[in-house]
TrEMBL record:
It comes from Sarocladium strictum (Black bundle disease fungus). Coiled coil: none annotated. Keywords: Membrane, Metal-binding, Nucleus, Transmembrane, Transmembrane helix. CDD domains: fungal_TF_MHR, GAL4. GO terms for molecular function: amino-acid racemase activity; DNA binding; DNA-binding transcription factor activity, RNA polymerase II-specific; zinc ion binding. Pfam families: Asp_Glu_race, Fungal_trans, Zn_clus. GO terms for biological process: DNA-templated transcription; nitrogen catabolite activation of transcription from RNA polymerase II promoter. This is Zn(2)-C6 fungal-type domain-containing protein. Residues 342-375 form the Zn(2)-C6 fungal-type domain.
Length: 1024
């Protein structure tokens, strides 16, 4: 008797869209439902609710998304057997959700596409895989994520060919007011150019992953580029299909080696031969649909309809027979004529040089890459018939109607060199005369009476022991500005007050020419994005680091960038490029090489000491905040420049405008902070002596901007909060200066003190720190964040904990010296040491608690230059505590705390790259502790081992405890800086210890199937 076979159980899968776009979620359905799955799968779709990011564009977006999505997903988790995270990024919600759902698989399409690409490549070949993505910001994000996942397996990592950003954005796919698909060809050119760049730079790339769901449907362009490059065999992988096929196998306990990832490969190449009709049934992502235009392609908006029911609009789509004679380009993109040579970029890529309109200055390719068409390279050699000059002339005069819109031959062709010139409009700004004296400016201007902000002259204060004495000025006749021009011509003697005089020296013509050349080079490096970068700087950096005068800078820049100095202009551009993706106008455009520009500006800063200007000093201080600039010597350079400019003097009664007085004071205290914090983090002696510093304290009136000047654009910083942060940082720095003077000069370090004497000196400093902390207004709390606003208060809190730790380092230094006869008895000495150790431990725990409380609004904001080293100093402090602790058990506890602190930094480093330095320092500290205690893993059988993502990094957590044990906050009892709930949730021990049986992450477990070598866990947790 036959037995009826039971149907396979239905597996319930939740497809997660971690952003708020429901249209995007709808678009997943036709792709996933078309797959042939081995399991009986029921798909449900979930979209991040309002309040989350509309699109994932940065690490900050991912953290915001995870914070909102995770609690909601955990409520739904019992109803599902598996989860597919549909985000092409290393989204934190994946590992956080996996740690809570036990053995239920959680698959990210990003990880799945990498796995599928590796399996398709196979371990025995040399084939590589690459990723074609959208905005340039994803190049670094995705490259870093792939490196983090594969870095422990060099063979697998060697298969990664890199990421190429196309620069595609929704703006490229819109209709113009006439209903023409004006940008479609530009979008196609971007995808083709990115693919060609990838194939040319990586000859071994055989698999291309489509890295972003917005790119779905653009596979034909990728295939077109592959064919044009003579690489038709290159395969194109869809990330959604790869993710679903992987999850399907994990649900059925099917070996991943048997998965047919061929289903995830693009089959568009076959569709190209079926004609336009084959596209009528194909539905594309984001409510867009594809139309074949005689093997060229155009995008068409059909609204935000459901992807499962969307159909082509017949009124917008010509009949197939009408498309047969269409050219490859779109009607709105005019081709270059044969008699007009292509620009250098198009010639290098061997593609047609197309212009969007007759009036366009740059071709479509150069516009998409934010570059300028150039025509300086020689054409390739080719055989052609000899043509007389008369024939050439006849040919040139018999062009098509488009030729009437081109510049005349005298503007297009260089008769001397025979090279076509760029189709650029002349830069009237560059040809204009340079204004030397702002007192001659017509109309209203802040600059008419300025002393230090003149355009083309430098100033130098007259020193008390120099070759000129101010007593010789008593009989001079000063003009209304306090100037006397009849001495040491062409210099001008300027009287600031009765005791302070300056020599003003005009720049020579050679110096002006060199400076203008540098300005042009800097502007051309970022052109045409200079104004947008200035806007970013004053939105994000300036509110918290207000050493420029916004209106003065904008007045100069508004007339011409040539009115600024190269260092002042370049530094603003360099720092603003750190927030390139925070501009809607720039986020989809390739970013220039900020490192190269930074190196250029640094070289200029070194050369400017002969004739510095205040704007050069301002630019130098701004540049020193760049994460890549690391130079104590440059701090000394800036201090010397400031002394030359009289910045360290009291300007209260100077004959200068009020706004300039405020600028000088803000710059002076910024320099003071740069010197003192530089001395702390570099371990050097301060350049500034207290008896040579005569700057009055800052007042609110020294800051011209108010809350009314706040920029309402998303991602800006608050002016009032930034002003308070700057003021409190200055007052904290004054306390730090006293700590350094009392405990860390060469003489203080050389002459050891008793613990009791150190405590007597430290007590008033500790009281000052306590009073400073108590005076902090609630608005500077870490919890006081405003939606869609960045907050830089994080660096202020970090500086406070660094100051506390620095003071306690001076106290703990006495633990390394044992007096033969303690003045108050051996028992009292032992007790005092125990008390100071506990107090120091409390500071360390509080500092780590602060790092836990940081939010995305803090990570993405401006951080002071000392922040990276300050984080490292916190770790170093833990190693000091470990080294002076007599008990081995306590030493092991500090090893555990140090490892957890390192793990915390690793979790945050993707959102805050400046934390990477501290991680490296902690690695070195771990080696030192290893030498002291033996192998770190020895004797840790009762500890839980937590492995970090990316490489083997054991972290030892005391069983049943975390860093919140054994210490209290150093602040007052009414301290309002409570832990952020989500940050605490992320770092809770239960979140780090995954209950999943089998102790494995599917990606790393199955990666060993390829015989790529031993693979460390990415998110795996285990106990030993």
């Amino acid at each position: 008797m036959a037995v009826d076979q039971l149907p396979p159980p239905c597996r319930r899968v939740l497809v997660i869209n971690p952003n708020t776009s429901t249209t995007l979620t709808d678009s997943f359905q036709p792709i996933l439902s078309a797959l042939q799955l081995s399991q009986n799968v029921q798909l449900s779709y979930w979209t991040c609710p309002p309040g989350g990011p509309a699109m994932i564009k940065s690490q900050a977006d991912m953290h915001d998304s995870a914070a909102l999505c995770l609690p909601l997903l955990l409520r739904l988790a019992p109803d599902f057997d598996g989860f597919l995270a549909a985000c092409y990024a290393d989204h934190p919600v994946v590992r956080l959700l996996q740690s809570q759902v036990g053995s239920k698989p959680v698959v990210c399409i990003f990880h799945a596409s990498i796995y599928a690409a590796l399996q398709l490549a196979g371990p025995s070949s040399t084939a590589q895989f690459g990723i074609i993505t959208t905005a340039p910001v994803y190049e670094a994000l995705l490259s870093s994520a792939v490196d983090m996942i594969l870095r422990s397996n060099k063979q697998a990592l060697a298969r990664f060919g890199g990421v190429a950003a196309s620069g595609i954005g929704l703006a490229d796919l819109r209709l113009d007011h006439l209903g023409k698909l004006r940008q479609a060809e530009a979008a196609r050119e971007k995808v083709i150019a990115a693919t060609q760049d990838m194939l040319r730079s990586r000859q071994d790339v055989q698999i291309l992953c489509m890295g972003g769901v917005i790119l779905a449907g653009m596979e034909p362009w990728v295939h077109e580029a592959c064919k044009a490059e003579g690489r038709p065999e290159v395969q194109v992988l869809d990330q959604l299909a790869a993710g679903m096929l992987t999850l399907d196998a994990l649900l059925g306990d099917t070996p991943l080696q048997t998965v047919n990832y061929g289903q995830a490969l693009s089959r568009w190449i076959a569709s190209l031969h079926l004609g336009p009709a084959s596209f009528h049934d194909r539905v594309i992502i984001f409510g867009w649909q594809f139309i074949d235009v005689a093997h060229g392609f155009a995008w068409m908006i059909v609204g935000s309809c459901s992807a499962s029911t969307a159909t082509l609009e017949p009124s917008l789509c010509p009949a197939p027979h009408c498309l047969a004679d269409r050219p490859l380009h779109m009607a709105t993109v005019a081709p270059r004529l044969r008699d007009l040579r292509p620009c250098d970029n198009c010639r290098q890529r061997k593609i047609r040089c197309l212009f969007a309109s007759d009036d366009a200055v740059n071709c479509v390719l150069c516009q998409s890459r934010s570059t300028t068409c150039t025509y300086v390279r020689e054409p390739p050699r080719k055989k052609r018939a000899v043509v007389s000059k008369d024939q050439n002339h006849d040919k040139a005069s018999s062009t098509s109607p488009r030729a009437r819109h081109h510049p005349p031959a005298s503007q297009s062709i260089s008769s001397a060199a025979g090279v076509t010139k760029p189709r650029r409009k002349p830069n009237n700004d560059a040809q204009s005369s340079v204004l030397r004296d702002y007192s001659q400016l017509p109309g209203q201007s802040l600059l008419k009476e300025t002393l230090g902000h003149q355009n083309r002259q430098s100033s130098a204060v007259v020193g008390a022991t120099a070759d000129f004495d101010i007593c010789l000025t008593k009989t001079l006749s000063w003009d209304e500005r306090g100037a006397f021009a009849g001495f040491r011509a062409p210099q001008v003697l300027r009287r600031a007050n009765a005791t302070t005089h300056f020599f003003l020296r005009p720049d020579t013509q050679e110096e002006m020419d060199a400076e203008l050349a540098n300005l042009d080079a800097i502007e051309n490096f970022v052109a045409p994005h200079g104004p947008e970068l200035v806007k970013i700087y004053f939105r994000i950096v300036h509110p918290t680091f207000p050493i420029l005068h916004k209106n003065v800078f904008l007045e100069k820049h508004g007339r011409s960038y040539r009115e600024l100095t190269p260092i002042g202009l370049g530094a603003v551009y360099v720092l603003a490029m750190n927030w390139w993706s925070y501009s809607q106008a720039l986020s989809s455009i390739p970013k220039p090489d900020a490192t190269e520009l930074e190196a250029r500006v640094l070289r200029m800063l070194v050369d400017v000491h002969r004739r510095p200007k205040i704007s050069d000093l301002q630019g130098g201080l701004v540049l020193m905040q760049s994460p890549n600039v690391d130079s104590w010597a440059m701090t000394g350079h800036l201090v010397a420049m400031a002394q030359n400019l009289g910045i360290n003097a009291d300007c209260t009664d100077w004959q200068v405008p009020d706004w300039e007085r405020g600028v000088r004071k803000r710059v002076a205290w910024a320099l003071f902070m740069q010197d003192k914090w530089g001395a702390l983090v570099y371990g050097r002696g301060s350049h500034i002596r207290s008896d040579d510093w005569d700057v009055t304290p800052l007042q609110s009136t020294d800051f011209p901007e108010t809350a009314k000047d706040d920029d309402n654009e998303e991602g800006s910083a608050e002016i009032e909060k930034g002003k308070l942060t700057f003021l409190h940082m200055v007052s904290l720095t004054q306390i730090v200066s006293e700590i350094l003077d009392n405990f860390f000069t060469l003489k203080a370090v050389r002459n050891p003190r008793t613990l009791q004497s150190v405590l007597e000196i430290a007590k008033p400093l500790q009281l000052q720190l306590k009073a400073w902390h108590a005076s902090m207004p609630p608005s500077l709390s870490l919890d006081e964040t405003v939606p869609m606003k960045l907050s830089s208060v994080g660096y202020l809190h970090l500086a406070y904990y660094t100051a506390e730790i620095t003071l306690h380092r001076a106290i703990l230094r006495c633990h390394n010296t044992t007096p033969s006869t303690p003045p108050y008895g051996q028992v009292e000495e032992t007790t005092l040491r125990s008390i100071t150790r506990r107090a120091a431990d409390a500071r360390f725990v509080s500092a780590v608690g602060f790092v836990k409380r940081l939010k995305a609004e803090h990570f993405q904001s401006f951080w002071y230059f000392s922040s990276s080293v300050s984080l490292a100093i916190i770790g170093t402090f833990a190693t000091i505590l470990c080294s002076i602790t007599p008990s081995r058990a306590e030493k092991e506890v500090y090893v555990a705390k140090l490892a957890e602190y390192r793990w915390l930094l690793r979790l945050s480093a993707n959102s805050a790259p400046f934390m990477q330095y501290a991680i490296g320092v902690l690695d070195a500290c771990g080696q030192l502790l290893d030498e002291q205690l033996g192998a770190l893993k020895e004797g840790t059988q009762q500890h839980v081992v937590v492995t970090g993502h990316g490489d083997d990094e054991p972290a030892f957590l005391p069983a049943g405890g975390d860093l919140s044990d054994g210490g209290e906050d150093v602040g007052d009892e009414n301290d309002t800086l409570d832990d952020d709930a989500f940050a605490t949730f992320l770092m809770d021990e239960n979140m780090l210890i995954s209950p999943r049986e089998g102790g494995g992450d599917w990606f790393q477990d199955r990666l060993q199937d390829f015989d790529y070598g031993d693979v460390s866990s990415m998110y795996r947790t285990s106990t030993t």
